[in-house]
Amino acid sequence: MRRAVILTGARQTGKTTLVRRLLPQEGVPAVYLNLDDPDERSRLMDNPVARLDLGEQLVAIDEVQKLPQLMDVVKLHADRPEGPRFLLLGSSQILLLKQVRETLAGRVTLLHLWPLAVGERVRARVAPHVGMDRLFERGEGGLKELARALPPVERSRELRASSEQTLLWGGFPSVETLATDQQRRTWLRDYRSTYLERDLGDLGQVADLDNFALAQNLLAARTAQILSYSEVSRELGVAVNTVKRYVRFLEISNQVFLLKPYAPRISKRLVKSPKLYWVDTGLARILSERFDAADGALYETFVAGELLKWLSWQEEPPHIGFYRTHAGAEVDFVLWSEDVFIAIEAKATKRVHPGAARNLERFLGEVEGETVAQRDSLGLVVYRGQELRWLGENLWAVPDWLLFGGME
User: Are residues 206 and 264 in the same domain?
Assistant: First the structure.
């Protein structure tokens, strides 16, 4: 078992709160050090090898990127068969991962903490299974089970409300506690300012913060679209390589993620550029100034975020991509493993007609016999409605709250 774990994620996702609350409950002998405190940094650097030699205790070090030289000390202790174990927390991955590569390669387990998913908005110590779990465990049989055992009316109402809340305001835990939309807007705007000042301050590689802030706005307006570096560079008036560096910073600090295209062996001219998604829909709405819950791109971003979080919980996550040809044929998401192949379309509507699955039906027909042999293949239209509906052979319309919400 590895003696060091790194827990990273965007700022304000709850890393510190999780660790400080969880460790005492588990009865783990632990020491917590916060390197945001300059006095703590000074004490630690006085004699770091001795100060971290704490027997069999778990040593939790928050904001570990503040002291890069500590990684050598952690490596020294982690290489010993006995001694302290380490839980390292950090937000700015650009420095953190560089240190891991140089000193802790092969010695650490790396974990990500994303904003809250719909299925995590529960008053329970352990989040329950979600609809996606049943789907990947039992394929279409899992959907039929959901159809036979829908949650009670009150629970369904709670799940719908949680789903809409995540769509509109994202999943930062602090936003959950706010009472009004204006408070939520203010918090998200302040978060953006803090990110620019602190995370990019840690990165130390952005010369023009105003230009970077404008790039954030432009990229948020392009969430759920094919990423064109040249198009963004023209609008910003900067070099393509500068835009690539901006996107890389946003990606490494867990603000955006890039989805690569799915490439079956069928003879089609496929789009090869990735799609860009903002991780948190609340931030995407604030940055792009688009506030309509029925906005198709933002809804697709919400579905992408829920899939990303669900994948991060899996011991052996399936692959994920999107499908688009130069002729315009498109499927929003494709997930596949050895046993299951699922194509997903995200629709920001509250009603779905049978024709909504036409693209899925055509796509599954094209890849049948080559890519999905020996697999349970399904096409899902994920939407904002209330009804789980059969749309045709292997085709279903599934409410987002049922797919991503916690099943008690």
Answer: yes
**Bridge partners for 88 per DSSP:** 6, 61
The secondary structure of 9-55, three-state, reads CCCCCCHHHHHHHHHHHHCCCEEEEECCCHHHHHHHHHCHHHHCCCC
Sheet with 225-226, side-by-side order of all strands: 225-226, 275-278, 256-259
CATH assignment at residue 23: 3.40.50.300
Burial class (CB in 10 A: 0-12, 13-18, 19+), 172: buried
Using the 8-state DSSP alphabet, how is residue 357 labeled?
G
Instruction: Report which residue type is found at 98.
Output: K
pTM of the predicted structure, to 2 decimals: 0.91
5-54 pLDDT, tens digit each: 889 888 899 999 988 887 776 667 788 899 989 999 999 988 888 888 88
* Token pair belonging to 221: 């307006």
The Cβ-side half-sphere exposure at 84, using a 13 Å CA radius, reads 24
Question: Tokens 């690569």 label which residue?
Answer: 260
| Among 108, 74, 113, residue whose Cα is nearest residue 90 | 113
CB 238 within 8 A of CB 247: no
Which amino acid, residue 133? D
